[in-house]
Amino acid sequence: MPAKNSEYRPNFAVWDLTYACPLRCEFCYSESGRRKPRHLALPEAIKVASAISSLNPNCVLIAGGEPLIIRELSPIMRVFQEQGIKTVLYTSGWLLDESRMPSIVEDFSEVRISVDGATEATHDKIRGRAGSFYRATRALTLLSEAKAENPQLSFGIECTLIQENFNEAAGLCELSRDYPGISSVSIGVALPLGLASRKSYAELELLTEGQWATLRSRDFKESLKRSISPPARLDLNDGSYYSEWWMQVEPDGGVRGVPLYEGVVGNLLERPSIELWNRCLERQRDPFVLNALSQIDTMEKWAEASRAIDLRFGTEATRQRILARPEYELPSSS
Ligand code: SF4
Questions:
Q1: How far is the CA of 2 from the centre of ligand 1 (A)?
Q2: What residues make up the domain containing 32?
């Protein structure tokens, strides 16, 4: 029976369906592609989907890792659709070819393709694999064609800004003009989480204070809006998001206490979803978490807070993984 009272349910849920990924993005918050995939066999995945939908969120965002590595997505997505829950796919587009389009149109209300540069060189460098810009733009072309036949389908570009691509934000918005039917371009600041919480990465690649201030300015927003082809909309995420009221689920059904930060409060295969949701709310009000997140006015301070929360609430294996991360170095050509 789905939870009815909005006070006791998450607005939306993010399910990282797998930690497998063909790309190696330098800022990946989930460290995907460098760790065990941990995705479930279909019967267990359906149980997790049922547990999430019992909370009756408005929307479920399917992310990862690369969710399209999972071939049997339709039976999982059907669980959400039967409850009238909107499904959104976040993908690099690497595996989104003609053969996947029919099921994608069937399974998802919306598809968001990550593009992190207006040029192939920038995107492929940030995403850690040659050919990733070609595959992302191929996916956008296929979605644009599918939209003509399926007006209910929404699709958009998702861009994460760091120092390296900050000056390409307008070019990225202009890219949207190549894809008729596109609904949105989402430009968001890279958050100091996961691999991006490394001290070296925060110092060398996360937005400077000046860039972050520019991102929040009205002029910047207006100039980006002018670069987008109407009626597509611009979503600008300056990092001031609110973590309460959404639930983040790991591939194996573990629920993170604080979305995006390490540390699970239990597994949806083992405990009732409402119990885990209440534990999330408790964790988010934990004095350690509140104190750490109260002092994040620069990216470096935020990265420090992320590392502290991850080490405090992660398992011993998580702590070992965090401590073994190689420091980030700028490529010699930079
Ligand atoms: S495509 Fe996504 S999941 Fe894969 S490495 Fe990049 S940020 Fe991580």
A1: 32
A2: 10-323
